[in-house]
């Protein structure tokens, strides 16, 4: 260690400071951050294209999603600056020159504020989508009220926490480490609440059990967000009791990206079947799929037959709504996403089943009565 460089923290006994090439998470950061942002960008693009071009109906949650995505893109320059700050992210403080601590503190401070800017519109978008799917029109069921409560709590807490970070907090302050712990705890609870919210409604729908499992499985993508949030919480606990904030803060921050990307997937996957159906009707795509099937030996399988050999009828034919031929493997979210007007009714609270037909999508949503189960 050069004698004229003072480390930000004295190294443990038997360890010497390394200011030249200390161990870091630089490689992981360069891999995880762009990958997660690219995945989120692809699926946000699919959602916006589907809603704006195919369905021609952009709603409130789509605007919140766009705001969250734009803020998420802001992590790219912030992450690049953190990576370029010598000696790199995830370096123990005894390997960091004391003169670099203000830069580390400021960069992570900006990233912490940016987290709140992303998480507020992202969670609001997801919860508004749950309300539109499971509480259409004037329906006021438990999902509606729980979603409203979660929106108020998330906006209130993260908004207040962001203001506190801006006005009072600095990352090198031990008291701020406690706020990271509290924030991580609340975030885990919020993520778990959003994860479990739609499943009771899904299992109240009148559809085959296999399709219920498939729908639940799609929303269970949010489980990855919960896992990432739990890992962040474990690092926040360690950070709370450690002065080595350059190391543990970077470890904790890296898991923000899998958490956010999982949230974007939860928001975007419900439109994926409609997007896939539309894309599959493009002649070039149709020819490409046919060629692939021919090469894979599926030429002898009739195109109008299901995997079980029964003819596809009814909903597989092109409807007036322009839905076209449908893949039997599609998860048909059109059975859940209905128009929020008086033509569409989904009753999850009443005893009798209710049914109404969505005129645009050409589908019906029915809840079986409690006596039929």
UniProtKB/TrEMBL annotation:
Chief location bin: membrane
Listed Polar residues bias regions: 296-307
InterPro entries, per database record: Rhodopsin_dom_fungi (IPR049326), SAT4-like (IPR052337)
Residue intervals of the Rhodopsin domain: 46-273
Bias (Basic and acidic residues): 347-361
Key words, A-Z: Membrane, Transmembrane, Transmembrane helix
TM ranges: 30-50, 62-82, 108-130, 142-160, 180-201, 213-235, 255-272
Keyword Transmembrane: yes
Region ranges (Disordered): 296-326, 347-373
Protein name stated in the entry: Rhodopsin domain-containing protein
